[in-house]
Amino acid sequence: MKNKLVLLFLGCAVLGYAQKKPAKNTVKIKPKSEFVAELMSKMTLDEKLGQLNLPTSGDITTGQANSSNVAKNIAEGKVGGLFNIKSVQKIKEVQKIAVEKSRLKIPLLFGMDVIHGYETTFPIPLGLSCTWDMALIERSAQIAAKEASADGINWTFSPMVDISRDPRWGRVSEGSGEDPYLGSQIAKAMVNGYQQHDLSKNNSILACVKHFALYGAPEAGRDYNTVDMSHIRMFNDYFPPYKAAVDAGVGSVMASFNEVDGIPATGNKWLMTDVLRKQWGFKGFVVTDFTGIPEMIEHGMGNLQDVSALALNAGVEMDMVGEGFLGTLKKSLDEKRVSMETIDNAVKLILEAKYDLGLFQDPYKYCDEKRAKTEIFTIDSRKEARQIASQSLVLLKNQNQLLPLKKSGTIGLIGPLADAKENMPGTWSVATKMENAVSLLRGIKEVAGAGTKVLYAKGSNLDYDETFETNATMFGKTLHRDARSKEEMLAEALKVAEQSDVIVAALGESAEMSGESSSRTNLEIPQAQKDLLNALLKTGKPVVLVLFDGRPLVITDEEKTVPAILNAWFAGTEAGYAIADVLFGDVNPSGKLTSTFPRSVGQLPIYYAHKNTGRPLSNTEGKFEKFRSNYIDERNEPLFPFGFGLSYTTFDYSNLKISSDKMNSTGKLKVTVDVTNTGNFDGKETVQLYIRDLVGSVTRPVRELKGFQKIALKKGEKQTVSFDITVEDLKFYNSDLQFVAEPGQFDIFIGGNSNADKKVSFELTK
């Protein structure tokens, strides 16, 4: 349809659409509350229940929308939104059915898992978090919203802000790590990036914070599994990022699959109503996760009618795929198991979201074919993605300054992830065109230039087990399994190594070894790759390990034997260029870990902000002590702590000062520290501030992140970094779930990671 259709109200009369789009800014519709109330007064019960229904579109081919299975329901007003459909052409066809063929012409929402970019793909969220740069993180979400909205999408199921302290759980790749303070800052940045404080813009989209709540703490690290924790831990450690997203104005919330206090989150009224709405003041709507309502049947909560009523009464407004609302709520209303008031409230929230997005003014707002051609996967967006990706990489080891590499001589690039462009975008990159991603091989060749010879060998498959590799390379993330014997592949790799001055080993996980339903019990690099790496080390040539992963891995052996380790995560469509930029020193690495790397899987869950026991170790060397809290076969501390990350330069912390050793409840303290770049490269450092509450009415963590600043220093430059401390930084939830700061002694630590040893102390007085 050439001209956009515009909804007009003529007094209080019938809803209808004009055939010609008026001049800009001349369309007037009633204020939101009045508009929605009037529209709802015209709706039948079936049409109201339809607004609560979010089916998947299936694969609708352009030109065939009218004959698709979902078209009939849309025309009958039985669909509130669709997801898993992309492109302006397809979305416009489907929207046309809603606004021309349905009785009340209510436009649809179109949602998609735009998790870490659209076609321009950024690092997986865990990698993004390691930038510790809120402006860059917000910018990544803004670009994602721009591209998605240009392709017809107006709703994203992101950000995922679940705190997780157990990397056996594969979805750590989608989150921002283990810390509630940092996670809260990132949640806010992502929401602001997607929504841009103004949903009326045509390049902003509705965000959806997920998964509410506690999804990142399943027993045994197994996806969808039981979660059970105290309320005090919920409020102090796991709830803050969700609340930060709500405070930032997130438009929607997604329920989690797990149970909370023995009731699945999708049917948990305490969670969805008491906490989310009454305590936090959330004004948007709640959507289930995929089939979240019927899955409560397996949880043992009743039949489809039972669980559908349970979810609606709990405070869930939209049913993703389950169709329990559509099929059972009418009967439940007749039986007085749900009320009309509850249904009406749910419908109102969905319609208000559509109003805020401007869909009633212009249902084709996101269907501009010019934007689709000019604003997706642009040169400028790719340039920004490359820059952001380079900031996400974490240098874990650099013995004898092996890195950065020289742009000369011969480099042997070896490993199953070396020429694997399809894996570079990482998990949950559903809109990415894999053919556009840049492999490490291509990146190194182009960044190194003609003066450097680059030799390549695959060296091994992902794993010796072909079935395992098949399961770990789904959704087009193939590694093109090599049919040769392991001996043949190794011989080729060693031949390349012999001819090389330095070896870059591209090893680790494939993209789908982490992500949803990709839990692992063994967090080591697969044995086939470990054997390859050991053979390369035996050549005596210097080896740089470029480690691909979607979670913290157990690399205790590699840390002992490999001279240099660069953790690359999965850095997006521009990964190959970004990694090469860091390897050759065009970018000095500045990423810092947001999730602890364990020494052994047996330490899990592991995190820096742990509590002390009554029997802590008395030594700092990790030596075993009987009748103390430790292991008989492993040290307590991790391999790499939270906040850790090296640079090609070095930073010295000195002259830590505090403005006073006392503060009252209305006061403020200033903490300053001098940071000096003492190395030979310009670089960036994330200065981290941790606080310990030494005595509390409940036990308190050994330290908690309460501030950070990422600064850039020229070599030899010194900068004084200052932090303000107020009583808000000292508050926590006590045993009565009151958010309080208790008078007493506090320690402040500042440094480059969570083991920071520069300390000052103060007292909070009454």
UniProtKB/TrEMBL annotation:
One of its GO terms (cellular component) is periplasmic space. InterPro entries: Cellulose_Degrad_GH3 (IPR051915), Fn3-like (IPR026891), GH (IPR017853), Glyco_hydro_3_AS (IPR019800), Glyco_hydro_3_C (IPR002772), Glyco_hydro_3_C_sf (IPR036881), Glyco_hydro_3_N (IPR001764), Glyco_hydro_3_N_sf (IPR036962). Its EC number is 3.2.1.21. One of its GO terms (molecular function) is beta-glucosidase activity. GO terms for biological process: glucan catabolic process. It catalyses: Hydrolysis of terminal, non-reducing beta-D-glucosyl residues with release of beta-D-glucose. Belongs to the glycosyl hydrolase 3 family. The lineage of its organism: Bacteria, Pseudomonadati, Bacteroidota, Flavobacteriia, Flavobacteriales. It holds the Pfam family Glyco_hydro_3. The keyword Signal applies. Keywords: Glycosidase, Hydrolase, Periplasm, Signal. It comes from the Bacteria. Residues 685-754 form the Fibronectin type III-like domain. It is found in: Periplasm. SUPFAM superfamilies: (Trans)glycosidases, Beta-D-glucan exohydrolase, C-terminal domain. This is Periplasmic beta-glucosidase. The keyword Transit peptide does not apply.
